[in-house]
Recover the amino acids of this structure.
């Protein structure tokens, strides 16, 4: 029997861990915030008090961390995962980082005969909770085949993209579209609303029209109810990802004008006096632009 472990019980990780527990009945867990353990439902939760402890026990270890620095520290830092994992262990990072970070951890893992997959996720906290995530994986195909059944406990679309870093690269492509489509969706909803069109009625039309996108559907309820704060999908996450995307575009000598403008809009919105603003909160910033003209 595999010893499966999970590190990182944030907005996404908690739902993912719960879905493994539902289908595997046992999960090793490490979190620095012990109160989050109370939110794990069912199954046998084996709590660990250190990365050393969980890495030493598990032959399959998944992480879902907030940023590049956290991934590097948890995997490569003193007392980190690689220091205490055994050869043939399969490590999976579901975090959204840059391609260089994914490749660096893969290279260091290879030195110790450890498998590493970059496997970022899409679907938001709702998808994490419902087990309907899209999981895009880069790395060794043998390792992917071995753990695909575990990834399918958390996602309905699990795809091997290719070599190390390709899962992360695909996530950045997705985040580019998410960001740009969100800006377009909010502009359209503002135009509809200011023109006297009910946005929920607009959504019913757009669902069967060329202008439809997932970001239209996702943002209509937030826009309609002005639910702009305390988001489980806050703007800071998109702002982080857009900066990574634009750094990559520089390396590739690509100009991404819509992406650059989207970053400006999200960054300016994040400066507003809002608590954990939702991506739909850009409507406040965009609407104010018209008042300043």
């Amino acid at each position: 029997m595999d010893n499966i472990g999970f590190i990182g019980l944030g907005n996404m990780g908690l739902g993912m861990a719960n879905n493994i527990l539902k289908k595997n009945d046992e999960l090793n867990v490490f979190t620095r915030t012990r109160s989050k353990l109370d939110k794990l439902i069912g199954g046998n939760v084996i709590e660990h008090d250190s990365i050393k402890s969980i890495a030493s026990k598990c032959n399959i270890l998944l992480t879902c961390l907030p940023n590049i620095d956290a991934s590097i520290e948890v995997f490569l830092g003193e007392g980190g995962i690689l220091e205490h994992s055994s050869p043939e262990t399969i490590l999976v990072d579901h975090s959204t980082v840059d391609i260089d970070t994914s490749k660096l951890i893969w290279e260091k893992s290879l030195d110790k005969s450890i498998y590493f997959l970059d496997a970022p996720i899409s679907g938001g906290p709702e998808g994490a909770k419902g087990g309907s995530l899209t999981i895009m994986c880069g790395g060794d195909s043998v390792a992917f085949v071995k753990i695909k059944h575990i990834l399918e406990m958390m996602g309905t679309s699990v795809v091997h993209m290719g070599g190390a870093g390709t899962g992360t690269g695909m996530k950045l492509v997705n985040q580019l579209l998410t960001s740009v489509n969100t800006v377009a969706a909010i502009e359209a909803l503002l135009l509809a609303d200011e023109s006297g069109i009910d946005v929920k009625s607009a959504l019913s039309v757009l669902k069967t029209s060329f202008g439809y996108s997932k970001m239209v559907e996702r943002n209509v309820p937030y826009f309609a109810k002005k639910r702009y704060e305390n988001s489980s999908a806050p703007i800071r996450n998109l702002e982080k990802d857009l900066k990574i995307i634009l750094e990559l575009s520089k390396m590739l000598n690509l100009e991404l004008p819509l992406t650059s403008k989207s970053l400006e809009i999200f960054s300016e919105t994040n400066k507003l006096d809002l608590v954990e603003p939702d991506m739909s909160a850009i409507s406040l910033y965009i609407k104010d632009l018209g008042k300043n003209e």
